[in-house]
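Work through this:
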Amino acid sequence: MPSYLVLARKYRPTTFSEVVGQDHVIKTLVNSILSGRVAHAFLFCGVRGVGKTTVARILAKSLNCTSRGEGDANPCNQCTNCREIAGGTSLDVQEIDGASNTSVENIREINENIKYPPVSSPYKIIIIDEVHMISINAFNALLKTLEEPPPHAKFMFATTESHKVPATINSRCQRFNFRTIALREIVDGMARILVQEGIDADDEALALVAREAQGSFRDALSLLDQVIAFSPGTITAADVIGILGIAGRECFSRLMAAVLDRDPSGALAVVHELFEEGYDPEQFVMDLLHYVRNMVVVKTIPPADRGTGTIDALPSEIEQLEHLAGRTSPEHLQNLFAVLLRAEPEVKRSSNPWIALDMLALKMAHAPDVVDLAELLRRMDSGGSTPTRIAARPQAPSPRASAPAAKHAPRTSQAAAAPVAPAKAEREEAEEIPAESFTIMEVTPLPSESPDELWAILKERVGQSARDAALRSVMDHGKLISVGPTEVEIGFTKAFYRSEFENRLTSRSEVKRVFEEIFGKAKIKTLTLATETPLDTEKPYAPPPDGQTDLDRALRHEAQDNPVTKAVLAEFEDSSIEFIKILAPKS
């Protein structure tokens, strides 16, 4: 049986005109050849399978071709030099694997050989594939030759990791960045090859193969070889789905329809169907991410403004995407995309990814509608009617609102709480609630006295109102550190004094009443000094290991408990506070 030549090798481009998807590179090289302004070193960068090494070979053949026509940059592929380069037997074109020739000795050998003129060609050409694999010392050994090469020498480097190539090498080369190939170009390229092979294929089947290739034409041809072996006659979408273990567009559309209908049972049914068919859950999440991304693009960009390759989908798929996207808002689609993006690593790490995928489907089906924040704030400021599905039921007044007033009790101010999204069963009733019925939450500002003045007032009241001279003596060994509407911090020089203070505060109601009159319902937090340090020093407390003072933590906690902060977090599912900056510390 004769050996089979895979499609990627059988149909490897032999001229510039046959290269797919790299027009910007091809046009530059062709113009350089025709004008005679060919550089001495080239660096071809890009992902796997986009034509870097192929273009290097075609360029080498074109430069050394003896029968190339005038005004034509393509090699003839018939002369001796072209045939020897194509067969890998040319003495003047040396192709080196960077992964197996990494040492200084290998580069030193190249430097010695490049000095001699070519045997039967105009140029002596060195092609190094995966050049980033050679060592830094080997790169340094190549610098001088690359800086001032002999007139007959040409260097061509190819790499998939250009960031590993030293800047000193990069600056001595003409760099070309090879793009990933668009889905439409891959489909058209495979269709031309299948015509020559006498094999029929559906457009949807080729689109599935191209999508799995992720911009690599060589990967697409390798997958196509596998599909042809599975179904040598006519290739259908079902054949591709079966052999590659991927889900078709129909699964994504049914799942997203169930999600937009808020039908969790329908979403779970699709996931269960995929499980029974044996699909890869990780690949399904990645493909679903791409599908939802296309839905966002379809929803937000008009057809006239979509550039070539903006949406990697067939015309029939785009119609389906537009139909689904028309049923919801761009904000909701972006929220679903964010949920998917956060869940992708969870599915990959999970010991049972299908359970994680079930929970993801349920989460998407129950995702609340998202309201534009600018519109929400505008309505809150104007006091007008609230946006749809964001009204909240009235809540009981905060316990803080009924705190007893006293001589030094702080004044209160009022701030309207932002509305929170109701449950699905309550939407109709919630939408009818006017803005005037929203909950009013009270926020207690800080007392005007300084911490030292407040601490003196507390000691005086403990001795007078609570009639506890012993506690006052204990408080002589403490100090008020920070005061906030939700938390108060008090420090003591020894753990003994801290323990005595806590016991009195919890066991004697009259002592507790004294602190409530000043601080309301704020939590009393007690601390112990790291060492026995006098309280009259400027910084009696040891610096915290995380670099934040207790006051910093109190202020951050206060910001997180702010009703406006809580209302905004409630509007956006799975949202969190990433960073809190203290603009002005409290005195």
